[in-house]
Amino acid sequence: MRVLAAMSGGVDSAVAAARAVDAGHEVVGVHLALSAKPGTLRTGSRGCCTIEDSHDARRAADLLEIPFYVWDFAERFTEEVVETFVGEYAAGRTPNPCVTCNEKIKFEALLDKAMALGFDAVCTGHYARLSVEDGVPQLRRSADEGKDQSYVLASLTPEQLRHSMFPLGDSRKSDVRAEAERRGLAVANKPDSHDICFIPDGDTKKFLESRLGSTPGELVDAETGAVLGRHSGVHGFTVGQRKGLGIEAPAADGRPRYVLSLEPVSGTVKVGSAKDLGVREIQADRPVWPDLPLAEPTECVAQVRAHGGTAPAVAEVVNGQVSIRLEESLHGVAPGQVVVLYRTDDEGDLVLGSAKIASTTAA
Question: Which residue spans adopt a coiled-coil conformation according to this UniProt entry (predicted)?
Fold first, then answer.
């Protein structure tokens, strides 16, 4: 097959490309330039898509003796990922930009261009597995549960999965680094990137304020209605947040307060105790099904964050929306997050589908 290897400049994508070469595919490497003004150096383990990263990707491609190109997707990334991120926060929702990037950039824009150029598949360094049942691709958790990235890939359509390759799905991260060392790849010990790639200093609140400015509102006790303070915008908060609330006086019981809900129209941020964060029902829209939609109530595991936030559940489709009843309460579940549904079979954890959280019901 003709395979386009997306090479970020990290160890995972380099080893994934190497394995595609070993498998006998005709491989071409490509680095995506996602910023019009990329930094020249990474800040510790934060950030990605820097000039240094593109150089690392090129060096890996040279070692593998494969052609290498840099494709400019900066404008598309800004429109699809950055502006969506800002808009969701302004609306009082909590987005996951990695999900958006995989959906709109790596497996829409990139895959579409790859197909137009005659490639058969796009290869990435994601930790996830693919299997095929009755000709339908099935997305599964990786063998390394601590690095599993099936959550951020769960919005991919069956057609996109059909043209995807995840060579690291059966590997553990430690083994991948050891393999990179054996292959002589200079990125073998390069630190992983963390946080949001387009906010390399990790200060999301400052980034959002630079885009949205100040939209003052009140911090309100959800139980008593008492005004506890003021803030510069709901975009500075997310459901489940405890630190940085700017409330001087402690709660009556002396325990911390948490953000329970955001009301962007009125600018109200409601806060309360940890016990009020529990959620037992989730309503989600815009579902994506790797196969067919759920035809009846289905036992599964619901996951609401990329790492953690899982609970046994029963999910069903009601009027096009996904209704999820959790058997155990989850905390810090926010509208705008993605919920992914899994079911375990003989081959491991299978992704049944994903959807955007629209609303929740307290425990």
Answer: none
